[in-house]
Amino acid sequence: MKTLLALxxxxxxxxxxxxxxxxxxxxxxxxxxxxxxxxRGARLFVNYCMGCHSLGYLRYSRMAEDLGLSEEQVMQNLxxxxxxxxxxMVSAMDPADATAxxxxxxxxxxxxxxxxxxGPDWVYTYLKSFYADESRxxxxxxxxxxxxSMPNPLWEMQGxxxxxxxxxxxxxxxxxxxxxGSLSPEQFDQVARDITAFLQxxxxxxxxxxxxxxxWVILFLAFFTLMAWLLKQEYWRDVH
Length: 240
Known about the structure:
Elements: H1 2-21, H2 35-48, E1 55-59, H3 60-67, H4 71-77, E2 88-89, H5 95-102, H6 112-115, H7 120-128, E3 130-132, E4 140-142, H8 155-158, E5 159-165, E6 172-180, H9 185-203, H10 206-239
Antiparallel strand pairs: 1-2, 3-4, 5-6
Helix pairs in contact: 2-9, 7-9
């Protein structure tokens, strides 16, 4: 018994510590059934993120179908790489250029909202947690992912944040806006939420269809159960 308990503690204790040691995440309150939010998120992503990052498992045509967009709308407003409508959403940046400029090729973000511990909340908090850091090569850092080798792509809207430390040389206590951006904090929260919702959708496009079909499946099962119960009552009436 003691051996089994020790084994359980050895396996799960590091996981619990890792979960407790992670950054404090803000609730994203995303809603992937909000088509307008997904459309805004798609526009923001291709304008501010897709210069470096790809969504290699999502096709323009699939996005158009799910988000209620026409081929013309997608090709004119959301496709800046010259890809065909049925092709995947791949960044135009050459990996060699990315390595030369920022030290490594930018990762594909298709599954980020599913792969990160915290899911959409991690993405949402990450987008809001950039701050100016002169010690970093690109002049930026992030409290959710310290040492992130990328600048803040949304700084013009959010403004430039600076870190406020808890005591001299201590941990970062909070971030505060040192140079205001073009949006209010509430407006920028919506921007981060829209991008997060779009990445949440991109990580599992079938979720929209699955949830809508699920309602009909439940209704069918309820109807079938009722019919089965009535049939049972009819059979047992003859038996009695």
